[in-house]
């Protein structure tokens, strides 16, 4: 399969799945978190596919690498925010399995792409 656009990238598609999963998780958080942790988690999650798309559209290998690095950093932010949520008493009973699986998958793909672009 030839990659014509960022929409052909599996990592972009899986990161969209991650965004949806984060939104589903956030719906289960208390409304008191809507402007704090929930907001940060949404921003971090949305940043991942957005930066993949922007970097791919820029056209150069150097720019693509730069924006993949930003996406990877946003993934690290999201991982941290999820860990914070797990430790808070109001979210102890939430199921993090799907979000953990997707973030791990996306981060591994981004890490591999970054290492290939570095060489």
UniProtKB/TrEMBL annotation:
SUPFAM superfamilies the UniProt entry points to: IVS-encoded protein-like (SSF158446)
One Pfam family this sequence matches: 23S_rRNA_IVP
Organism: Candidatus Kerfeldbacteria bacterium CG_4_10_14_0_8_um_filter_42_10
Gene3D superfamilies with a match to the protein in the record: 23S rRNA-intervening sequence (1.20.1440.60)
UniProt-listed InterPro entries: 23S_rRNA-intervening_sequence (IPR012657), 23S_rRNA_IVS_sf (IPR036583)
Protein name as it appears in the record: Four helix bundle protein
Origin: domain of life: Bacteria
